[in-house]
Amino acid sequence: MNQNEKKIKVAEEALQYIESGCVLGVGSGTTVNCFIEQLSKIKSKIDAVVSASESSSKLLISKNIRVISLKEAGRIPIYIDGADESNSLKQLIKGGGGALTREKILAQSSDRFVCMIDDSKFVSKLGSFPLPIEVIDVASSILALELIKLGGRPVLRESFITDNGNIILDVHNLNITEPIKLEKSINNLPGVVTNGLFAIRPADDLLISSDKGIEKI
Ligand code: 5RP
Fold first, then answer.
1. Residues 182, 100: Cα–Cα separation, whole Å
2. Is residue 96 in contact with ligand 1, taking CB distance under 6 Å?
3. 15, exposed or middle or buried, with CB in 10 Å at 0-12, 13-18, 19+?
4. pTM
5. 3-state secondary structure string, 81-92?
6. For the segment 72-95, what is each residue's pLDDT rounded down to a tens digit?
7. How far is CA 67 from the centre of its chain?
């Protein structure tokens, strides 16, 4: 199976977690796009979706799936999203698509966070994928210096503005031995909106798609 086929399979599997009549949280990215395709087939089963990005909202609306705001929804029973990397503790790196801030808000607002990945993203140690950090533009150069002090190599994501109007620094070479500690340290830097470590609130269920099928952790 190629990576896209694995994404389709894991998206099909994630449908199992949907409860009748629920408001569902949905993240962003190509795996989530596969999930939205599947969701459109059973859309009458759900009440509405809270979406983590403008692009997911657009796709959901094009499938005639009702999208509501988090303010309207309150807490979310189930949140379904992809990731760029996961370790065995279901701590993640997210933000490859740049939607990390709203994704983190939805993960935090959810009772159950189901994460869909393919086996190439399951790692023993996080950090091969550069850590995305959404930052306020005026702080970018001072933050870059701080991130270098943490051992990273920050690179500005070219021609990219987040749905919140901010920029992204992708930080290479970080030695992420303690994901929770690093997530907190980066959050404490003034000018950081969100970093892409999801370790304080990891996934609850991890679905890993491979040639052998879907493994659930
Ligand atoms: C977007 C994300 C995505 O979940 C992550 O980048 C994985 O994307 P894809 O499913 O396209 O591989 O965090 O901000």
1. 16
2. yes
3. middle
4. 0.93
5. EECCEECCCCCE
6. 999 999 999 999 999 999 999 999
7. 18
